[in-house]
Design brief:
Blueprint: H1 2-29, H2 34-54, E1 57-58, E2 64-65, H3 69-78, H4 82-96, H5 103-129, H6 133-155, H7 160-260, H8 268-300, E3 304-306, E4 308-311, H9 314-330, E5 333-338, E6 345-348, H10 350-366, E7 372-382, E8 389-398, H11 405-410, H12 432-442, E9 446-452, E10 456-464, E11 472-480, E12 483-488
Parallel strand pairs: 5-7
Antiparallel strand pairs: 1-2, 3-11, 4-6, 7-8, 8-10, 9-10, 11-12
Helix pairs in contact: 1-2, 1-7, 2-3, 2-4, 3-5, 3-6, 4-5, 5-6, 6-7, 7-8, 8-12, 9-10, 10-12
Length: 501
């Protein structure tokens, strides 16, 4: 009966020590280095063995019966390093000497050293066999308890016959039972700790998923806003387009009807004037249709260009002829400056370059009521950064009305204009800048804009001064949030080109 009381008290102490160790680990050692945690766990096992001896059953003045073997059994299952089990066995054995050095304590030291070595060998064998955790626990309880009884019988100070007949029939079943109960309690602690860790990991995962869902929601909201804005732009565009198409068509129909009346009262000069108006209206209608076709090719990703040598010195002459009359009509100054350091030619698509420059100059004259419009053609060399390389730059400068910062990026979007209403002051389809931007990307360059309201604007077309280029390139269009991402597929310049700044 005394053995039962003492061994149950030992078990309660070990459970309390395990619980306290769990609290210390959770709140004190959770973030400690791995080797510190390992050392503390070994010392805790040895301390639990010593604690069992403190509250053990004293059969005589020097002989103590306790459950010091249980910490070693738990260590046999918990630790993967056999050397650690030997250290734990020796440590608990030397802890026995703290109660006095005598024949019984020395026997206890040898017993624990033997059990530590046996636990190490048993650990190696069980891991090689690949036994489950439950099987390893049952084997460790059975083997170490039986070996402990044999050691006590033959190494201890109690006669073997007396021990086998009187003490072991009580202590062995009791030790086996309490070892099993304590192991199950520790196993429950372990499972609860594992569930806590899994719960924390699940909470972290759920938090990350919630954040991802929140970000996805924001992205979807932005996409919805972009789609609504795009839909509004297209609605405005269709209304404006009907207005733009109706003007030249009405002119063609009305003046063609006047000519078909065959009224003898009209002079040849009037008839010629009617024909000129019809001719101009037809050209205006053709320009609008060409813009729409170019835009459809860009959106379909099938806009192709041909690379060939372009004479830079011819650009001023072509543009001067085209816009000189426009400048005189608008009573606005017009000048073109050419950097003499530029090469004579460079490879590009001459027709597309002229199309871009005509769009930019047309806009400059449209929004400039006084002052001047100028075109500066220069070279720019950058050793590093996103503008690294040699560029030919076309600066279209004007002293017009300027563009506010919120409108500067919007005007490069398809169907968008600074003023999209039908009753707007300035006409046009709003496609010129969008097409010019896409053409610039296709040519391996880009367009920059600097503008201040009331002080004018400067549109800068950057094109690469490369000596080699393929005869044909295709614009690849990839939808993205907030607009369209263009990639110019050109030799040596594959990838996303610098964006509007």
């Amino acid at each position: 009966m005394d053995f039962c009381k003492i061994f149950l008290g030992n078990t309660a102490l070990l459970i309390a020590a395990a619980y306290m160790a769990n609290l210390v680990y959770k709140y004190g050692l959770a973030r400690a280095p791995k080797h510190v945690k390992y050392t503390c766990s070994v010392l805790l096992i040895i301390f639990c063995g010593w604690l069992s001896m403190v509250f053990g059953y004293k059969l005589s003045e020097n002989v103590i019966f306790d459950l010091r073997i249980i910490p070693l059994i738990i260590a046999t299952v918990a630790y993967a390093e056999p050397v650690t089990l030997v250290i734990i066995g020796i440590g608990i054995g030397f802890a026995r000497l703290t109660f006095g050095v005598n024949e019984a304590s020395v026997a206890g030291l040898f017993n624990l050293c033997i059990l530590g070595a046996a636990a190490a060998l048993l650990n190696i064998w069980m891991r090689r066999k690949g036994f489950s955790l439950v099987t390893r626990g049952f084997l460790a309880i059975l083997v170490l308890n039986v070996l402990n009884c044999i050691d006590i019988a033959f190494l201890g100070v109690i006669p073997a016959a007396h021990y086998f007949e009187t003490i072991m029939p009580t202590t062995l079943p009791l030790t086996l039972l309490l070892s099993l109960i304590f192991s199950l309690i520790l196993r429950d602690f372990q499972l609860e700790a594992a569930r806590t860790i899994q719960l924390k990991q699940s909470n972290v995962l759920l938090s990350a998923q919630a954040e991802e869902l929140h970000q996805a929601k924001r992205v979807l909201e932005e996409r919805a806003k972009e789609l609504a804005r795009s839909s509004r732009y297209k609605t405005d565009f269709l209304a404006n387009m009907s207005h733009e198409l109706r003007t030249p068509l009405n002119s063609i129909i009305n003046f063609a009807e006047l000519i078909s009346d065959n009224d003898d009262s009209r002079t040849k000069e009037e008839m010629a004037e009617y024909g000129e108006i019809i001719h101009q209206s037809g050209h205006e209608l053709l320009r609008i249709i060409n813009d729409i076709l170019d835009l459809s090719k860009v959106e379909a990703g099938r806009l192709e260009i041909m690379h060939e040598g372009m004479n830079i010195s011819e650009i001023p002459q072509l543009l001067q002829m085209h816009f000189e009359l426009v400048a005189q009509k608008e009573n606005v100054g017009f000048s073109i400056k050419l950097d003499p350091s530029l090469p004579e030619t460079f490879r590009t698509d001459p027709s597309r370059v002229q199309q871009i420059l005509k769009n930019l100059l047309s806009n400059a004259f449209k929004f400039t009521h006084q002052g001047k419009v100028s075109l500066v053609i220069r070279a720019e060399h950058n050793p590093e950064g996103k503008l690294a390389g040699s560029w030919i730059v076309f600066d279209v400068q004007d002293t017009g009305i300027g563009i506010s910062p919120p409108q500067q990026r919007r005007i490069f979007e398809a169907f968008a204009q600074a003023d999209g209403s039908i009753s707007r002051k300035y006409g046009g389809t709003g496609l010129g800048l969008s097409i010019s931007r896409d053409l610039a990307h296709l040519l391996g360059g880009f367009i920059r804009l600097e503008s201040k309201v009331g002080r004018g604007s400067c549109f800068s077309l950057y094109l690469p001064l490369a000596n080699e280029a393929e005869e044909c390139a295709t614009l690849e269009i990839t939808p993205s949030v907030g607009g369209v991402e263009q990639k110019a597929l050109l030799p040596g310049r594959t990838g996303t080109v610098p964006s509007l700044e």
